[in-house]
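Example record

The entry below shows one chain as it appears in the dataset: sequence first, then structure tokens.
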Amino acid sequence: MKNYLFNGKSFKSACLSLLTANILFASPIVASEAQKGNEIYEINCQGCHMADGKGDQDMGMYPALSNNIKLSSASITTQIVTNGLNGMPAFREYLDDGEILEVVNYVRANFGNNFKDIARLSDIPK
């Protein structure tokens, strides 16, 4: 088999370099979104749901977010964060739509949760 060169590198090596560059280029976008969601969580949610997302089981008031199947619906989770539920306050007054989406998507992708679909602007109740 003939070894094709691309800019002094083999085709395989060149493809690997391009793939690596693409991953490095795309990663900061994903990382910055996760970082924003984490920051919003730390400021607004962590006090009740704890740093590990396991809630305050001693008080029995703050449910665990970790490994929580109830977060499987992006739409319902977004509605709860926006309007509140039971003892949880409505964050519509404190967070803009983008921040609500960032924290919902962060929680649904962390703490043992791995829901693939993301919350979208259309999920926020008007």
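Notes for this example: Confidence is low (pLDDT under 50) at residues 1-7, 14-29. The longest strand covers residues 5-6.
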